[in-house]
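Before the break, one more example. Copy the sequence into your notebook; we will annotate it together after we see the structure.
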Amino acid sequence: MEQELKSLIALPKQAVDPKAPSLHLTFNACSELSLTLPYHIEFTISRDRDDYCTQPIAFKWSPNSDGFTEEGFVLLRHNNNSLERVPIDYPETAKSNDKEICVTIGFDHHVWTLAPGDSIKLLAPLPETHHKALEPNQQYTLLWPGLLISKWDFGTMQNRTGHVLEDTEESPALILPGSPHTCISFVAKEETEAWPDRPEIEARFGFTEANLQEETWRKSRSQPRAPKLSVALECPTSLSLGTVFEVSIKVTYDAMPDARPIIFHAHVFDTEDNLQLHRLEGDNWNVCEDFGDEGGFLLVDDPDVPINVAQDTEKFVSLRPGESWSTSRRLQGEKWTYLPDDSKGGNRFRVEFDGATVDWWDWGSREEHKDTVVKLPCWIKGPVVDPKDNGGREKMNVSASDVVEFSVGKE
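Here is what the structure looks like once it is written out:
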C-alpha cells in the first residue's frame, strides 16, 4: 500500500532545491469521521531549524484554496488490499489560482511568515466536495502529493507590504513536498440517531451549514450543563466593636450522586466584592456603599503567574456531588472594621452573598487535573487570565445566598 501512495507523490522531498527554504507539512485529525458533522483537520507547516536558507520567507498557502484543489490533496478509498482514488467534483473556485496576483498588505489572510525553526498551525474542515463523496463504513486516506508554492518571497509580511508575492527566476522553487507518510486515514460513520431537522436545514442552507447546526444540536444534548453551587452564610448574631468578626461561607456542589466531580477557582468567594452589607435605617435596609473598599493601588507590570490547579489547594477547590467547602471573610479586626464609621450599639446589619460567575471551572477531580496549568495576574488575587474564556465551557453562575443578620452590641 505504501508503494501505491508513493506512486501518487508529485513532488517528494528529493525535488526540493538544496538552496531553497525547506518546508514540511503534517496534518492530523480524528480517526473517525461523521458523515453529517464537520471534520476538523489541523495542518502544521514548519521549516527546518538548520535550513540552508537563513532568511525568513513570506508565502501564501490555504488548506481550502491551495490544498483541496485538483492538484492538491488526494482522497483514496481502501478497497480490500488496494487504494481507489475517489473522484471529486471540483467547483470553479477550487481550480488552480496560480494566475491570481497576491499583493501583501501587512495582515493578509493566508499569507504567513516563517523563519528557520518556526511553524504555523491551521485548522480547517474537510470541504463539502470531499465530505459528500464519502460512504458509510468505508476507510479513507487523505494524501498530500506535494505542490509548488508559487506566491512567496524572502522577507516578512511587514517588510513586504505592498509587494507582489511571486516565484521569480532568480529564486529557487519553493515546494511543500509530499510523501507516503504525509497523510491521514479515517473511517466514515453515520450517526446512530438522525437529527430530525437535518433535511429541512440542509435544503434551506446547504450541506456545510447543516453540519454546523447539527454539531450544535448534538453538543447541547450530549454535554452536561454547568454544575450548580449553592452558598450558605453563618455568623454570630452580635458584634462588639473592636473585636474580630467573621462570616462563614459554605459552598456546596448540588448534583446527583452519579455526576462528575468538579474543580473551580475560588476567587469569587475570596473577595468582599460579592458580599453585600446592609444596615437597617428606619424601615429600610440600605446598602453600605464603602463595604470592602480597601483603597490603595496595585502594581501590575509583572508577568502573569502560572498555577497548577491540582497543587494549589488554597485557590482551587475540588468537590464531588454533595460535598461542601468552607471559607470565611473577616468583616472586622481588632483595629479596623468594614462597618460604617458612624456605627453604634443597637445598629442592625444584614450580609448576603449576592451571586457571581465563577471565572474558571472544569469537570474532573484534582487527580484528573494534575497537569492542568492556568495563569493568574501577578498579584494572584484576581480571576484567571489564561484561558480567558474558561476553555469554551458554559458559565457557572452561583446564585445569591440567604441573608444573615447581626446587631452591634450596646456598650
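The two ends are 93 Å apart (CA to CA). The helical segments are 2-7, 63-67, 128-131, 198-205, 207-222. Try to locate both features in your own notes.
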